[in-house]
Amino acid sequence: MMLHLLAALFAAVPLAQCVRRGATPPLPLPPRISAGDGARLHAQSGEQLPPLDTLYTFDQLIDHNNPSLGTFQQRYWSTWEYYKPGGVIILTTPGETTADGYTGYLTNDTINGQIAQAHNGATIVLEHRFYGQSNPLPDLSVESLRLHTIQQAIDDLEYFAKNVKLPFPGGDQVGPDKAPWVLIGGSYAGALTAFTNVNKPGLFAASYASSAVVESITDFWAYFEPERQHMPQNCSLDLQAAITRLDSILMGKNQTAIDAVKASFGMDDIVHLDDFAGALKYNLYAWQALAPGEDASIFYDFCDALEVVDGVNAGPKGRGGEYALAAWGKYWTDGYYAGLCGDWDAESCLGSYDTSASYWTDTSLGNDDRSWMWVVCTEMGFFPESAPSPHPTIVSRIMQPSYDERLCQQYFPTAFPQPTAPQVERTNQAYEGWNVQTKHLYFGNGQRDPWLYATVSSPFTYVPDMPEQSIGLSAGGFHCSDLATWYGEVDATVLAVQEKGLAAITRYLAEWKPAKTGA
Ligand SMILES: *[C@@H]1O[C@H](CO)[C@@H](O)[C@H](O)[C@H]1NC(C)=O
Ligand SMILES: *[C@@H]1O[C@H](CO)[C@@H](O)[C@H](O)[C@H]1NC(C)=O
Ligand SMILES: *[C@@H]1O[C@H](CO)[C@@H](O)[C@H](O)[C@H]1NC(C)=O
User: Fold this and answer.
1) C-beta 11 within 6 A of ligand 2
2) End-of-domain residue from the set 411, 427, 457
């Protein structure tokens, strides 16, 4: 199980591909965990159950504000390995991606299955509208994406819970008025879990939100703060020093020096300096793929390239900006660039100004990046930029929200004729952001998670840990670590967050009562 799970998680690492990379910011996404061959027997009866990857579909409303538009097929997966009549129904969505490969969230490889095991539950993975093959409309044009809102996604969860006929005996008699439902989500889907509790109080008897990015933030420079603070100190100091040196060149007037530094990264032909500086963030995004118990990773290879010379580590202060910037460039020309861009030239691979590129204009289904960018540009923001001066930064200070506002305009020109900031205040107003105050909700977070600063455990705010809305924070946790059973087995602080969550869910479920029937 362990090896299999690890392999699945590595597969979730955004692998270097020979595709245009320029404008894709990191997705707040829970790890893909697949459950292997998927053959399962019912825990009590021993009866053979359908394979975990058996696909079911649900007739979901296209538009909750206009049911006369009809329905579309929303994909889901489900198992009742641990289910007994009277048990709980456990629902999750992976959020902004195809839900293929998420069957681990049906099993006790994840907190979902652990809750099922403890409470005789059935588990469900529901694909989010506008991702994978769950599309209300035939394309991802701006006109179609008007139905891609957080509110429609919340309404999907309610309509699904109230109307689905689950594929097991008695599965048509387990609506949230008759059985306790548990909603679980990580990352964006974790925020959706919290938002659903705010928007539909009482619909779910209990909820578990991991690394939930509840506060929408346009200039999300703090994405890089957990990384800057928790990576090896020499690497952190050297990255800061390299960026200081880089910025003095890029913001200076010496064209020879500017050309030389671009060439040292193998990006001679890239036209715009912000595309060049922005490309260096790819090394930093590797931090998001880290998880407890994994010491080998692309991220640490990168640090080693800066810190290790002839097998000898730099001391705690690092090697200084001049050395680090040159070593960073060499790391790119020694293979990183080829892994990222294949044989594409830098402007084609990493440039973002050619608005005729299919990257911007392709509205066909299955383009999850485009679909997520719509949410980024309209409701949530999370532009990964440099820290405000003089706060230390590992991202060039050239990188400002205006860069990503332009990307939004290029993706969706009819929605944004001008570069436009996302309407994050409206989102934080509607779903309470850091002011979230609900019942029967548990938040699990990790100190090393790059999305930490948008969660209720953000150092930017103080959200109390209350019995009714409880919070667990692990020192060793990365992004959504507490969703995966395995990470609790390798890190005691993650295990403590999981155990606190399981106890909270048990407490919340004990308070649940079926709705009174009758007129
Ligand atoms: C998880 O479920 C499997 C059966 O699918 C079972 O064999 C195993 O014991 C369970 N793990 C725990 C820790 O209960
Ligand atoms: C410009 O940069 C180049 C390359 O780093 C350097 O050799 C040259 O002296 C610089 N010119 C000036 C005027 O500083
Ligand atoms: C220095 O960097 C190396 C390589 O990344 C790392 O293994 C080591 O822990 C770092 N040492 C300190 C004191 O930061």
Assistant:
1) no
2) 411
**Centre of ligand 2 from the C-alpha of residue 260, in Å:** 10
Ligand whose nearest atom lies closest to the CA of 230: 3
Q: How far is CA 404 from CA 25, 275, 349, in A?
A: 9, 11, 17
Ligand 1 atom closest to Cα of residue 485: 13
* Average pLDDT in the chain: 93
What is the domain extent for residue 238? 228-411
Q: pLDDT at position 228, please? A: 98
pLDDT (0 to 100) of residue 197 = 98
Q: Answer whether 313 contacts ligand 3 (Cβ < 6 A).
A: yes
Most distant CA pair in the chain: distance in Å?
A: 81
Let me know if residue 428 belongs to a domain: no
Cβ-Cβ contacts under 8 Å for 311 (sequence gap 6 or more): none
Residue 155 DSSP code: H
Contacts of 351 (CB under 8 A, 6+ apart): 22, 270, 271, 272, 275
Ligand nearest to the CA of 316: 3
Pocket test for ligand 1, best of 45, 52, 108 (most atoms within 8 A of CB): 108
Q: Which atom of ligand 1 is nearest to the CA of 41?
A: 5
Q: Residue 1 and residue 109: Cα distance in Å, rounded?
A: 8
Q: Where are the beta strands (DSSP E) in 98-225?
A: 122-126, 181-186, 206-210, 217-219
Nearest CA to ligand 3 atom 4: 304
Residues 264 and 402 reside in one and the same domain:
yes
Report pLDDT digits (tens) over 170-216.
999 999 999 999 999 999 999 999 999 999 999 999 999 999 999 99
pLDDT in tens, 484-504: 999 999 999 999 999 999 999
Residue 219 lies in a domain: no
**How many angstroms does the Cα of residue 314 sit away from the middle of ligand 3?**
7
Q: Quote the CA–CA distance of 465 and 462 in Å, as a whole number.
A: 9
- Based on the domain organization, do 310 and 242 belong to the same domain? yes
Q: Are residues 451 and 308 in the same domain?
A: no
CA 287 and chain centroid, separation: 13
Is 422 inside any structural domain? no
254 in ligand 2 pocket by Cβ < 6 Å?
yes
